Amino acid sequence: MTRFTCNDTPPDWCELRSFARHAPSLGHTATVIRSDVRARLLMTRGRCQVGTGPQSAVLRAGQYLDLPETLDSLTATATTNDAEFLWLCGTWGDHVAGCGIWTVMDDPDATDAGDPVDYPKRTRMDRHYHDYDEYWFVLEGSAVGVVGDTHHDVTAGDCLALPAGHPHDLPIVHETMRGAFFETTLRGAGRLGHLWEHTHGPAPRDPDRV
Fold first, then answer.
1. I want to staple 83 with a disulfide (CB 3.0 to 4.6 A). Which of 36, 78, 180, 187 is the partner?
2. Which of 140, 15, 157, 21 is nearest to 76 (CA)?
3. Angle value at C-alpha 185, between 183 and 186, nearest 5 degrees
4. What is the pLDDT along the chain (210 residues), one digit of tens a residue?
5. Distance between CA atoms of 9 and 18, rounded to whole angstroms?
6. DSSP letter string over the chain?
7. 147 near 2, Cβ under 8 Å?
8. Which of 191, 184, 192 is nearest to 209 (CA)?
9. CA–CA dist 144, 154 (Å, integer)
10. CA distance 138 to 132
11. Phi, psi (5° rounding) for residue 197?
12. What residues have CB less than 8 Å from 202, skipping those under 6 apart?
């Protein structure tokens, strides 16, 4: 199962072991607790004052903070009325690819620079693979995600786990999708970014990640 929610146990191969979405109201504070070796707060909308012990900083949408190994929790106080963040915990390594936020919408005139596909496609997302695992979090909207040859209907609250070396795509959006992504430990050749079989060679599918 590569599609799961915050209430499910991720597949065994996933370095992401849990996630939660928080949306504290203006002036209110959310306290989040480490549940695994690594923990990261990723702002997905608005702003929060994030406190780690005696330190604090304002984080805006798209910014993130890794919880220091010496701490087990942090606080996030909403400084805008639309504040929202993801709390990610897991076992990823020291060298990870990245994270961020994105919006994907239906576009019947979309062009595609990725690998050729034999299924309907109406977005500007390209079919590609990575040298690391990636996780797509659906915050709003609904879409169809493709992992290898399997199509998944995803909606708000879902996470889609994308194993290293497995081509993936988001070809159809039913309702404009606002989401986030998290790319974990570099593997294999350690290349960054979107890789295409027609340019970078066959995707090195990891048999442990199915």
1. 78
2. 21
3. 95
4. 689 999 999 999 999 999 999 999 999 999 999 999 999 999 999 999 999 988 999 999 999 999 999 999 999 999 999 999 999 999 999 999 999 999 999 998 887 789 999 999 999 999 999 999 999 999 999 999 999 999 999 999 999 999 999 999 999 999 999 999 999 999 999 999 999 999 999 999 877 776
5. 8
6. --EE-TTSPPPTT-SEEEEEEE-PPTT-EEEEE--SSEEEEEEEESEEEEEETTEEEEEETT-EEEPPTT-SEEEEEESSTT-EEEEEEE---S-EEEEEEEEE---TT----SS--SS---SSPPPBB-SS-EEEEEEEEEEEEEETTEEEEEETT-EEEE-TT--EEEEEEEEEEEEEEEEEE--TT---S-B-HHHH-S----TT--
7. yes
8. 184
9. 6
10. 20
11. -65, -35
12. none
Identity at 29, one-letter amino acid code: T
Return the structure tokens found at 204.
Answer: 């090195």
Whole-number Å distance between alpha carbons of 55 and 51: 6
Q: Which residue has the tokens 């959310």?
A: 30
Give the Cβ contact number of residue 88 at 10 Å: 29
The structure tokens listed for 57 are 């900083």
